[in-house]
Design brief:
CATH topology of the largest domain: Rossmann fold
CATH architecture of the largest domain: 3-Layer(aba) Sandwich
Bound molecules: S-adenosylmethionine
Number of domains: 2
Shape: elongated
Strand order of the largest sheet: 1-14-13-2-3-7-6-12
Number of strands: 14
Distance between the termini: 16 Å
Order of helices and strands: HHHEHEHEEEHEEEEHHEHEEHEHEH
């Protein structure tokens, strides 16, 4: 049956909504048809019910731009339809998850990104180190490149009655890429562009730097030669002029034996150490478009969603940086453990196409409700 006829049949069976019907083996086998037919204008998420590994195998290679997911944590919860996470040993859980990360690697485009949120588990009093065990195996055995290990500071954790260890309030989010040549839109996630201001008649940078302290440090320095002092003063005045014209919102000056340098002292590993040794100073400039977020994310856990139906929903804010920075506007986001569809909801809000997979039909139904499912108008 050709794609057009097949999709007409699905639409007929589902009163126009094909996504709820892609459940039978035959339907799953036809994901390619449906997938390739999705138009760029239609950002309504596509949901598939079933085992992630099976469904991933039917998604074409190098077709996904960004994968963001939170698999079940090992040994913690039993979801509606079982699935991954119920293995007797962490090693078996990691083996199963690695089969999935291998498929994710295949379906990701060469410039694609994979954001993996995973928490740890205690067994016999010992933290299992599961997130890092997974990350290291992904790098060693599958060749993933790890760009960031983000700490999600949840500010509050699960109930914990133990009195012999600290309370746990963080989880890991790893950012993996397939190649060095990956898509990354830093401008989309820079925060609070800063501006210069006038204070007591003087132009000061966004963080209050007006150059007086640096000028004095240069003049009084016993580590700079006369020539170095002259050069440093000249360069500083030029930088201050740029601040005045708002060409630079902020800067820092590092002067030999004055400021604590933020790099390795070894000239072999650091260009800045070399500059400091040869010139006696260097500048650090802040971007006009604001700073990039750090790798510690302060995001409260989700408790607005209906926890009786799905109790591991992650917050929408967790998906914003990954999608904005690593999924181009015409790209496709994938969540192979989509649960209540948070990733897809955010992708939809940010006008990206997305695919969600979950083993539980009930969760897929919740996901569909959340994104106020529109009918797909493929033809
Ligand atoms: C941590 S939850 C994801 C929650 C999701 N991020 C959200 O915000 O709702 C993990 C999900 O993985 C699903 N799951 C477990 N094993 C699976 C498998 N083998 N294939 C597909 N989904 C699976 C569970 O049903 C559960 O909904």
């Amino acid at each position: 049956m050709i794609a057009k006829e097949y999709i007409s049949e699905l639409k007929h069976r589902g009163n126009g909504d094909i996504t709820s019907l892609v459940n039978t083996q035959k339907d799953v086998g036809n994901i390619n048809f449906i997938f390739e037919s999705l138009s760029i204008e239609n950002t309504t998420p596509c949901f598939y019910t079933g085992d992630s590994l099976n469904i991933l195998k039917r998604i074409p290679s190098e077709s996904i731009d960004c994968c963001m997911t939170s698999p079940p944590y090992w040994g913690q919860r039993c979801y509606e339809n079982g699935g991954i996470g119920l293995e007797s040993k962490p090693e078996h859980f990691i083996d199963n998850l690695l089969k999935i990360t291998k498929e994710i690697q295949r379906v990701l485009k060469n410039a694609g990104s994979f954001w993996l949120n995973i928490g740890d588990t205690y067994k016999n009093k010992s933290l299992q180190g599961i997130p890092w065990r997974i990350a290291i195996r992904m790098m060693d055995e599958q060749g993933w490149i790890l760009r960031n290990d983000v700490i999600w500071n949840k500010h509050k954790g699960a109930m914990d009655s133990s009195s012999d260890k600290l309370r746990n309030i963080h989880e890991m989010i790893f950012h993996f890429v397939k190649s060095n040549d990956y898509y990354y839109n830093d401008e989309a996630i820079r925060m609070n562009p800063q501006t210069t201001t006038v204070r007591n008649g003087a132009i000061v940078s966004s963080s209050g730097v007006c150059g007086v302290r640096y000028k004095r440090q240069i003049e009084l320095s016993t580590s700079l030669s006369k020539e170095e002092k002259a050069m440093a003063m000249q360069d500083l005045l030029q930088v201050l002029q740029k601040v005045e014209k708002s060409e630079i919102p902020d800067f820092r000056m590092i002067i030999r034996n004055q400021q604590r340098a933020t790099h390795s002292d070894s000239e072999r590993v650091s260009g800045r150490a070399k500059e400091l040794k040869e010139k006696g100073y260097y500048f650090l400039f802040y971007s006009k478009n604001g700073a990039l977020p750090t790798d510690i994310w302060e995001i409260l856990p989700e408790d607005t969603q209906n926890r009786e139906k799905h109790y591991a929903v992650y917050p929408e804010d967790l998906c914003k940086i990954p999608i904005l920075s690593t999924c181009p506007p015409d790209g496709i986001v994938l969540d192979p453990f989509c649960g209540s569809g948070t990733t897809n909801k955010v992708a939809y809000d940010l006008q990206r196409r997305s695919i969600g997979i979950d083993i539980s039909q009930e969760y897929i139904n919740i996901a569909k409700q959340r994104v106020s499912q529109l009918h797909l108008n493929l033809f």
